[in-house]
Amino acid sequence: SKTIYLKDYRAPDYLIDETHLTFELFEDHTLVHAQLVMRRNPELSAELPVLSLDGQQLELLRITLDDRELTAADYQLSDSHLTLQPTQASFVIDSTVRIHPESNTALEGLYKSSGMFCTQCEAEGFRKITYYLDRPDVMSKFTTTVSGDKQKYPILLSNGNPIASGSEEGGRHWATWEDPFKKPAYLFALVAGDLWCVEDKFTTLSSREVTLRIYVEPENIDKVQHAMDSLKKSMKWDEEVYGREYDLDIFMIVAVNDFNMGAMENKGLNIFNSSCVLARAETATDAAHQRVEAVVAHEYFHNWSGNRVTCRDWFQLSLKEGFTVFRDAEFSADMNSRTVKRIEDVAYLRTHQFAEDAGPMAHPVRPDAYMEISNFYTLTIYEKGSEVLRMIHTLLGNQAFRKGSDLYFERHDGQAVTCDDFVKAMEDASGIDLTQFKRWYTQAGTPRLAVSEAFDATARTYTLNFTQSCPATPGQSDKLPFVIPVELGLLDARGNDLPLRLQGEAAASGTSRVLSVTEAQQSFTFVDIAEQPLPSLLRGFSAPVKLSFPYDRDQLMFLMQHDSDGFNRWEAGQQLSVQVLQELIGQQQRGEALVLDQRLVTALRSLLQDGRLDQAMVAEMLSLPGEAYLTEISEVADVEAIHGAREFARQQLAEALFEPLWQRYQANREVSKGTPYVAEAEHFARRSLQNIALSYLMLTGKPEVLAATLEQYEACDNMTERLTALAVLVNSPFEAERGKALEAFAEHFKDNALVMDQWFSVQAASTLPGGLQRVQALMQHPAFTLKNPNKVRALIGAFAGQNLVNFHLADGSGYRFLADQVITLNALNPQIASRLLAPLTRWRKYAAARQALMKAELERILASGELSADVYEVVSKSLA
Ligand code: B3K
Ligand code: ZN
């Protein structure tokens, strides 16, 4: 495979002003006619270089240049390009190709899912549909005609507005769509199927009426309302917070069952994984409801951050993704609980993105090189990219940030631009120089920020000393200092925030402030500090760094209770838990008896007993850091010791806190019983505390807990309570009840693929012994298929990513199993194969024996035959 470099970027030689497509859909093939109205790029010289169109897996039937039919002597064909020599600066190319969506298992380009036709073109899937300049800086006006069997495909959709339709002989019909906005080919979409829709209206800020439609398979029509509500909230929020108005007369979402990711922002015709559309109380959890809301918002927000203003090249991917994740995170924060959303996002970032940043695939937010762009839809591009945007927001403040985003959209509307263009708009609007800040885009790796303090009682000064560094990453051995915004406060002995005045300032301003750490070593001195304060650092996680400060456990308990920043109260609890768990891990490794620091019990008890606290916060604070996070922060991860220590702590907490947990559980279950399901923050909060309490309580094995679990399982009216009860049983020693519940669940939900995904996941994640055999047996279940990405993620992905003790079995059988699946999937669906591989790429985290076993499996994959570029890139970089 060949590496593509950012430094080799050249503007396109030719442009495509208009693209006229006609699709003739049949059961055993599809014909695609493309008329491309082209011209020489006027910004380049007048000479006419060779035209090289992208095209893969296409059977060329006919091609004309300005109405002259070309013969094989007029062009060259390879397995990736069609090249020919234009003779005029403006010309029209007309081609007809045959393709095979009916046998496309890679789910890229045009393919079939549950009998319907659909597309996925980002990043480079359009070249599997027709010969084209398949790059985001070639933007064209599209008209699309789709024709197909009227009975099988009553609904025919594409981007833009419908302009004509009609019937043909032979039971066929057709529809033509016109998209008035220029767009790159990756935003093209087509859908044909037997679909029902829910329709609604939205009136925009300039009083235009927009038709909203969500299309699903008929049996799912009762699970669409939540997505529709989410869409309307998103449209309103984008108008209010960013001044962005929708621009077409119709906005459509289509749910499909087989989809490689969550969803896709095609202009006017978003195509979604059904898991990110369908939600109702009986079948989807609170988490699923929130994910639907977030993904609907994310794709909708792309209409401006991605579609109206798009990326010049794929190295700029975070331009649209980082920005849009930041936008959807703020939306979710406004719709639900801001602090809880931040906690969830930070926990996810620190567990998964930090691991990526420390692994063989580490890359900057704006990468310099890639082999397969599909491999770069990563946590770094999305989640770290969003953190970079959040830091810009923090440094500029809300007003200047909004001015910057207005300027960006206005200046670049209709263009394909770069991350530099975005930052420039922010600089121009705010007058703030972001030159050094831009290192966040170019340097990979997670910065470390070590902080020490010095209090001078006589001078009444308090100094914080910051030292930043960043570990080497592939291809980047030395890093320059970052701009790290550190929001902080200083607590006095009663837990109050002190007024903050830095040396040299005339007066104190505020009690929570943002300091910019820009040097490798830098100190800040606060004056008028009468007594030794306790610092609360990196409030709200104001920068994606690993911060260290030598807190002792009593200080962490103090912050847990008193910090005015909700995020940092949680963070203090996490740090306390990490210290306690690391102590237990050490005891286990030395073969000593495990002894839990009772301060953790005390801290959690007082949370449980304080009825004034937000229940969602209490639930978050009761959640111990996960095994994956404990792995990430270990020098060498000891799988068994991590699992053993964490389970020991959970068991001890369950026993010591039985009374308050039981009380909170029963009180919340009572309310849940008497309240119909509502997908809103206060109800999420109640159920989350109820459910985490139940999972602790079951560790005691008491009969009254079993009875309560069975009661909840059977009598609840929603999937959140039901799935928790099931998971609690699955991880419990009550074998008979577990088997019965699993069977009853599968029987009841066997026709609902998304619910069955949950059923697979719950079992895949069970850490009871024999996990691999259970997963292998479940692969034989009639509801499982390797061809559906949701199923692969639910069973195999959950096993390898969440069930660490079973996946990392010392004999390497978990690794062998995963490699076998990757090898099979490589031929079926390279993108899914490459993603599934991730756990094996982390081999450097483990001791020698496991390293050897993991590497052997990577080598076996490498030697297994013809590898896709996707799998080859990840495997070869992991072994390098
Ligand atoms: N832009 C798409 C991701 C496409 C991934 C292609 N391999 C979804 C999103 O981020 O909104
Ligand atoms: Zn996106």
From TrEMBL:
What Pfam family is a match for this entry? Peptidase_M1_N
Q: Which Gene3D superfamilies match?
A: 2.60.40.1840, 3.30.2010.30, Neutral Protease Domain 2 (1.10.390.10), Peptidase M1, alanyl aminopeptidase, C-terminal domain (1.25.50.10), tricorn interacting facor f3 domain (2.60.40.1730)
- Coiled coil: which residue ranges? none
Where the record annotates domain Peptidase M1 alanyl aminopeptidase C-terminal, the positions are: 554-880
Provide the GO MF annotations for this entry.
aminopeptidase activity
- What residues does the Peptidase M1 membrane alanine aminopeptidase domain cover? 227-440
Cofactor list? Zn(2+)
Please state every residue range assigned to the domain named Aminopeptidase N-like N-terminal: 83-187
Q: Does the keyword Nuclease apply?
A: no
Annotated catalysed reactions = Release of an N-terminal amino acid, Xaa-|-Yaa- from a peptide, amide or arylamide. Xaa is preferably Ala, but may be most amino acids including Pro (slow action). When a terminal hydrophobic residue is followed by a prolyl residue, the two may be released as an intact Xaa-Pro dipeptide
Give UniProt keywords alphabetically: Aminopeptidase, Hydrolase, Metal-binding, Metalloprotease, Protease, Zinc
Domain Peptidase M1 alanyl aminopeptidase Ig-like fold as annotated: residue spans: 445-548
**EC number, UniProt record:** 3.4.11.2
Which SUPFAM superfamilies does the record match to this protein? Leukotriene A4 hydrolase N-terminal domain, Metalloproteases ('zincins'), catalytic domain
Q: Which family does it belong to?
A: Belongs to the peptidase M1 family.
NCBIfam families the record matches: pepN_proteo (TIGR02414)
The name on file for this protein is Aminopeptidase N
Q: Which gene encodes it?
A: pepN
